[in-house]
Amino acid sequence: MTAANLVLGLDVSTTATKAILLDRDGSVVGIASSEYDFESPRPLWAEQDPDLWWTAAKEIIPTVLREAGASADDIAAIGASGQMHGMVLLDENDEVVRPAILWNDGRTQAQCDAMREAVGRERFISITGNEALTSFTATKMLWVREHEPASWARARHLLLPKDYVRFKLTGEHALDVNDGAGTVLFDLKARTWSSEVLKALDLDPAMLPRTVEGPEVVGTVSEEAAAATGLRSGTPVVGGSGDQASNAVGVGAVVPGIAAMSVGTSGVIFVPTAGPAIEPNGRLQAFCHAVPGTWHLMGVTMSAAGSLKWLREELAPDKSWDELTALAEPIPPGAEGLVFLPYLSGERAPYPDPLARGAFVGLTVRHGLGHMVRAVLEGVAFSLRDVFELVRETAPDPLRDLRATGGGINSALWKQIIADVLGVPISLTRTAEGVATGAGILAAVAAGWYPTVGDASEAMVEVTDTTAPGPNAGAYEAAYAVYRSLYPALKDSFAALSEV
Q1: Segment (H or E) for 192
Q2: Is-contact 488 343, C-beta < 8 A?
Q3: Residue 320 pLDDT more than 90?
Q4: Mind listing the domains of the chain with CATH numbers?
């Protein structure tokens, strides 16, 4: 038990690294962030220099301490979370071999096919809980081995994005079981690496880091990292988790029945389960939760708030987010016959198809920018409903509470549209930074403040607001039915366009 009264949570996301300071009851006493971008050097590619994450961490950690009026001695423990599935390769000197390949990279379809053939599709899903998809880390490893043999020959260690930042803090190679399951090299039931999958794919287990549970201490802040960040050397650093499991902890989705929804760059529906629950066709992801002894189901739509970001950057860069969404306010539900498919980065659930493409369907001369904004807001909501319905069918326990985070939820209009389309109330908690908060809660358990993640979540998470479905809820059914018909109708066209 430590006398320090704060924990630090880090969120290494696709577009920014954030730091949050929490006190013992979960109140936010400081927050800081540093933004960056990722590169897309070729179609379907998404890469990032890992040094961006560490540079950002070195900037924001002293900033959040200074702005909170806190000192390094006030921090009892540190938790890290971040974007899932990214591949960071280190050489024998722990130098980065090549830019990280990110979760939203879609180049590895051939490697997915090879994995299914090597293991057997049904067997692969039964072991890992997942279909072989381009998002997952294992496919990226096989791609580098095939296409960049010189880089592969140098590679000695695999880490994921937040694990690289933790490595820079502690010098330890480690991976929590949530992100481990997200590599699809895990035996889901055993919560560790699958020797069968590794053997079938001819991957060396020596490349893989040791695995830990979310609140387990991995190491302590090194003297070198302390000098770079202003932290106290010897401060414990825990395993943490991928962003979605951490977000679930941050909003209290740590037991079956309480679901988490994130409307960030991607959109996610996340449901804890008491045991491994596998969707037999691989349309949902089944991973280990950050909560020891717990698993979860997760469905992802690849471009949620990312779709609105794209629209703003390409068609209305002079407008603020509030001005943009205000254009959609007077447009009636259904956007007067305009439907948007949000498959700008391919899709994952319920259609695991990296070749899926975004589209406006139904455009006429009467449609303006406001209609397009409304169609984007509704199209993302329809995609979330696709995921929600599939999760509800697969989860063994009924869903009684849906708690939301992410930039998209900051829009009252979008939040209401999603509640109307899903047909369920959406609750908010007192912090919008669920991922970093979840990382801090895991650190609070390691600090000895609470005996379990459930206890810590109950004490540190507070629901503040709930949006119920409104009078427009039924008005979306016709547009949703059209939306549901479009992917099957356009699937072959999307595949053909990928060859153009």
Answers
A1: strand 192-193
A2: no
A3: yes
A4: 6-251 (3.30.420.40)
Q: Taking phi first (over 0 means left), then psi (-120 to 50 degrees means alpha), and beta for anything else, what does residue 423 get?
A: left
Candidates 74, 179, 243, 353; catalytic one: 243
**Closest Cα partner for 449 from 4, 27, 72?**
4
pTM equals 0.88
Tell me whether residue 420 is one of the annotated catalytic residues.
no
43 vs 25: CA distance, rounded Å = 46
At 240, list the tokens.
Answer: 């943490």
Partners of 187 in beta bridges? 192
Model confidence over 439-494: pLDDT tens digits? 999 999 999 999 999 999 999 999 999 999 999 999 999 999 999 999 999 999 99
Q: What share of the chain is helix, strand, coil (3-state, %, to 5)?
A: 40, 20, 35
Phi, psi at 376, each rounded to 5°: -65, -45
Q: Which two tokens stand for residue 106?
A: 């879609």
The C-alpha angle with vertex 262 and arms to 68 and 218, in degrees rounded to 5, equals 60
Q: Mind listing the pLDDT tens digit for each residue in 142-183?
A: 999 999 999 999 999 999 999 999 999 999 999 999 999 999
Q: Say which residue the tokens 């929804």 belong to.
A: 261
